[in-house]
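Here is an idea for our session: we take a single protein and study its fold together. Once you have written the record down, we can walk along the chain together.
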Amino acid sequence: MTVKHTMKPVSVNPLKIGPSLGSVLALQGCYRGMAILHGSQGCSAFSKSLLTRHFRDAIAVQTSALQEMDVIFDTDRNLEEALNTVITKHHPDIIGVIGTELTDVAGSDYPSFVKKYTRERGVKNCLIIPVILPDFSGSLESGYNAMVEGILDAVIQEEGCKAPTKPIYSQVNLLPGSFLTAGDIAELKEMISDFGFEVITIPDISTSLSGHLLTGFSPLTRGGVPLDSIRQSLRSSYTIAVGSSMERPARRLQNAVGIPYKVFHGMSGLRATDELLLFLQQLSGASVPQRYRWQRENLLDSMLDAHFHYAGSSAVVALEPDHLMSVGSWLGEMGVEIKALIGSCETALIRETEQEVWVGDLDDAENLGNGADIWVSNCHGRQGAKRIGASFLSAGFPITDELGSYMSVSVGYKGAMNWVNKVGNLLIRREEARNESRLC
């Protein structure tokens, strides 16, 4: 395996999304949560704007609003004022204090300040979680899993790091990766529940960012997993992590309270879904529900119908690392030639894969993917796909120029069938356009 980095002095049409935004995204899946971005107002405005445009819902974000003199003299004063305001006015259950490149370059020790603040103010019924996430390291994926790990770590410490005496054998934890949509998470919860398990999902954007009509305004997140359920997760019998980036939070639960875990690197395609259902069958002792047998037959029939159009096709994929390898694996199942895989940052999963992976931007996707039939990336790659003549398929974050992307389903047999048909239709339209140009 080879990981290659493009040697450019500047990023052209960036693929990477800052880790602070990933942390904010994770908090949106926690009930009555609030993210405080410890930095300038622009940091919070950028995250809030992208998330709002992608999910088309109000996003709960606050800021410590640092300015030049604050950074020079005392960043803690602004953070203290922000915490006082949020706790006094809104009474959240969870507060995430998220660092930015400004506070980390300035050398602000805000994790120590948060511990001191919690101890001296006697904060009760509210978890305050500091997360160090400078934008010059990592990506959306790393920020997301760091916040999930921080939430679990805070709950474990709150409970005294003691293993529960009576685990609930019918209860499992689901740790979904940052690349899963609200629709994906809802589908996975249903699949696991069909084997007789009660599922605690951390975080759960399927009940907070799935699109809903609620009256009134709330500055806190509405929907998501409640804090009491997160505490209850320490009594689960098993943890299912989706995406290799979620292994650290799952391992934290195992080391602290002895909950075993299994990591699924992806949930797209026939092989990945077979692996999940076989695992759930072995874990529960129950047979696979009949409807999934029918869904598998439907998927196989769709793959058979589509394979004529997939034959000889090629693709370029540019996504976050976990999502990149999941989509790349599914395209490989369909016999698609991968011209290039471009990730936003280097991770352990990318280093371990047998395929060549580039760490770069969407400009690299344009150069490396020249001649590809399919381009898969977030909406910022649409123009690049047009320039190289590839059919564009939106995936990942953000997707601001399409409706309902946050509820699309790509996991399980149902999701795989959706993708088989969606990409197959793109290839059909492409072939029709090519034939029309020959007639002209």
User: Anything to note?
Assistant: Residues 28 and 287 are 35 Å apart (CA to CA). The radius of gyration is 22 Å. The chain is about 45% helix and 15% strand. The longest helix spans residues 412-439.
